[in-house]
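Box 4.2: Ligand-aware structure prediction
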Amino acid sequence: MAKITLDNLAHSYLPNPSGEADYALKELNHDWADGEAYALLGSSGCGKSTLLNIISGLLHPSQGRILFDGNDVTHAPTAARNIAQVFQFPVVYDTMTVRDNLAFPLRNRGANPTYIAQRVNQIAAMIGMEDRLGQKARGLTADAKQKISLGRGMVREDVNALLFDEPLTVIDPHMKWELRTQLKALHHEFGHTMIYVTHDQTEALTFADKVVVMYDGRVVQIGTPQELFERPAHTFVGYFIGSPGMNLFDATIDGATATIANTSVDLGAGYAAAGQLQVGVRPEFIQLSTDGSGIPAQIKRVEDVGRHKIVRLEVNGQNIAAIANEGASIPADANHITFDPKGINVYANDWRVAPAAEAA
Ligand code: ADP
Ligand code: MG
């Protein structure tokens, strides 16, 4: 296991990149702590696989260095990095049995046959393939083959890190939860440094201690699920995480007061912010009011989603969402909304601005 350091790392697929837009991965400095489970979350094309492949050595970065426990491995081949990587689609040896596929990484390293037999059985149980160990991989479904790929990725206990690139894409939905749970169990048991790439926020938030959110080739926030929920560092994090995501209101700000849709709103803290300002409030922190206080709003519809209700409103021509408790009745005469100050974040040009007190 190792701490992985990214030092001034950036990558462009173009031979002569000229501006930032030419970089699939914008400049990045980050330590992946030894033994931590990370999710790398972002929409398709934001650079997740590019970053993962640079860490594993499948791709050489056009700028910067990668260190494992302080040792420069930037130019080291994949094999020398001692990393297990599982891809989106199965990579198995069709002519080999399930058992031989799982044993392959261990035999390759000259492990003892008794240990191999025992470890292969253990992994087979984790992926639910105990009864198919003697079968050839050829002829198995894509789902079963991907389970073998996962098992092969997990079989070695002595790797520096385990990298998963959207590994559950072809897995049956009801098996996804089960396999994710197994990966978490594996992390608890062996404490590998793990990086799990996904575009699915639920997968990211349930798997990882820390979530690394990427947007347009850039890491925009690294935090616990709670930090991403309470203090989104970038409007993209607010929008991408949460269901529905954070509401954004154009605002002018003077100290601790914002003006939104011609209404004064108490921010609960003072800001010294300039630029294109927005106030972000998650649906969980918006209340309906019937006494005329707050920002004028019209209820468009109410969706009952089981655990709670989503109230869709229009504010100054903009669609916004509020969340009400399951049992709450939605007053028909509610025509304003108010914000819980502890759920307010201020953004300048899409980046969060800390309140003056927090910044001091
Ligand atoms: P993700 O895994 O988040 O979907 P990728 O890392 O695969 O994103 O891709 C990031 C960007 O780099 C995309 O714009 C993609 O089109 C581009 N890209 C990926 N691989 C290559 C490649 N081999 N050559 C050129 N461009 C690529
Ligand atoms: Mg990818």
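In the box above, the bound molecule is adenosine-5'-diphosphate. The chain is about 25% helix and 35% strand.
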